Amino acid sequence: MDHPRLGRYPAARHVIAHLSDTHLLEGGARLGGRADTVTQLERASEQIARMAGGIDAILVSGDIADLGEDDAYRRVRAALDPVAAATGARLIWVMGNHDERAPFRRVLLDDDSGDESPVNQVIDLDGLRIVTVDSSVPGYHHGILEAETLDWLDAVLAAPAPNGTIVALHHAPIATPLALMDVLELRRQDEFAEVLRDRDVRAILGGHLHYPTQGTFAGIPVSVAGSLAYTMDLSAPARHLVGIDGGRSFSLVHCFDDAVVTSVVPVGTFGEITSFGEQFLAEVEALDEEGRLDRFSRKREWVTDG
Questions:
Q1: Taken in order 181, 183, 184, 185, is the CA torsion positive or negative?
Q2: Which range marks the domain in which residue 39 is found?
Q3: Signal sequence span per UniProt (predicted)?
Q4: How far is CA 150 from CA 96, 135, 146, 193, 286, in A?
Q5: Which of 86, 185, 202, 237 is least surrounded, with the fewest CB atoms within 10 Å of its CB?
Q6: Does 295 map to a domain?
Q7: CB environment 45-64: b (16+ within 10 A), e (fewer)
Q8: Residue 306 in this model has a pLDDT that exceeds 60
Q9: Is residue 287 one of the residues assigned to a domain?
């Protein structure tokens, strides 16, 4: 159902729920003996499920399993498959440095080939092309774009997509204030930039850093989703790398005709300070512009208890 436009911008053409770094373990064990990754994924899943009809894809940008275990991947699918079914969203999986290619393919992509080559994919979302790029290095935690991946990506991007392209990879090509994370950064970024130059890439989505952040690479907006496992504390003393049991989030990516906007969604249950429901919105939509300004823009005194 189409709704009246209330402001300058039309509704987004595509919406993606962008999750990252779930880091599940076999048997649902706590990460590091402390972080309850299962509950955090369940909470995020519940929040995404509320957006039924409002999202087109659920993209998980790597480190889905902490040790690449089959059972860990099965648990993530068990949490997100029902959400995808309920919302009508496409599930998109991206390889991370903690993932292992053969079990990743076997459990998440239903591919029993045992293929150990990079897991690169192209997904069409009603004209929006999602290209997932495998930046993992077997046996290591830093990232690299292998020559075969760069050649493949170059060929994919040779022709534009109707609604443009989003590239997703785990090791986002973006600066970080965490010095130790520089050791684990993406290699061959210059070659990556050359492949992306003058192509239809509208945004780059990534993970790996364990905190939400944004920037640009080769003139393209970059959005990094926060981790669902644990969060890096950027307020820790300089030259310290501290992960905390809190601050978890995922992102929403809204793709408009001429812009991409990303927003951070805190994961958890929180008390409401204010709330306007669907009935109120419908009442505002039924008014003309002057009526809308009077109904919702005009300043009024807050009424509080006590």
A1: positive
A2: 14-266
A3: none
A4: 17, 10, 6, 10, 51
A5: 237
A6: no
A7: bebbbebeeebbbbbbbbbb
A8: no
A9: no
Rounded to 5 degrees, what angle do the CA atoms 162, 168, 171 make? 155
Q: Does residue 176 sit within a domain?
A: yes
Overall domain count for the chain: 1
Tokens linked to 283: 């009442």
The per-residue pLDDT for 4 is 87
3-state secondary structure of 39: helix
The 10s digit of each residue's pLDDT in 88-143 is 999 999 999 999 999 999 999 999 999 999 999 999 999 999 999 999 999 999 99
128: exposed, middle or buried (C-beta count within 10 Å: 0-12, 13-18, 19+)?
buried
**Which residue pairs from 117-120 have beta carbons closer than 8 angstroms and sit at least 24 positions apart in sequence?**
117/148, 118/146, 118/148, 118/149, 119/95, 120/149, 120/152, 120/153
DSSP codes, 149-197: HHHHHHHHTTS--TT-EEEEEEE-S---S-GGGGGG-EE-HHHHHHHHT
- What is d(CA 239, CA 175) in angstroms, rounded to the nearest whole number? 15
17 neighbors 252 (Cβ within 8 angstroms): yes
Retrieve residue 264's tokens: 């951070």
The whole-angstrom separation of Cα 86 and Cα 158 is 35
- In this prediction the pTM is 0.95
Domain with residue 127: its CATH number is 3.60.21.10
First CA to last CA distance, the chain: 42
**SS3 state of residue 91:** strand
